[in-house]
Design a protein that fits this description.
By secondary structure, the chain is of the alpha+beta class. It is about 45% helix and about 30% strand.
């Protein structure tokens, strides 16, 4: 979970707990539900990442970089693409052909 999502979820859960203590547990329950939805729907891609998102099995798009939301039941992140350059060491003999 990224830091922004963690912060928002914690704030909503604390508000729900505070209202639950002051006004009763049923008054704070909606905040816990909203906190769970925020935790499941907010995603964050780093600068070098792209997320492939499917909605009900069909391609919705490629998201990133940055913060984006998905619908928890309908959307699914199926792949995280790393766009950083990766170097591989090899000998000159391996690169020679006949």
């Amino acid at each position: 979970m990224n830091p922004i999502t963690l912060f928002l979820t914690a704030v909503l859960a604390l508000i729900g707990a505070g209202i639950g203590v002051l006004a009763g547990p049923w008054a704070g329950a909606p905040f816990f539900v909203i906190a769970a939805l925020v935790a499941a729907s907010l995603k964050m891609a780093n600068t070098w990442q792209r997320f492939v998102v499917l909605r009900a099995g069909n391609l919705l798009g490629v998201r990133g970089p940055g913060l984006f939301m998905i619908v928890p039941v309908l959307d699914n992140v199926v792949a995280v693409i790393d766009q950083r350059i990766q170097t591989t060491a090899f000998n000159a003999e391996e690169a020679l052909t006949r």
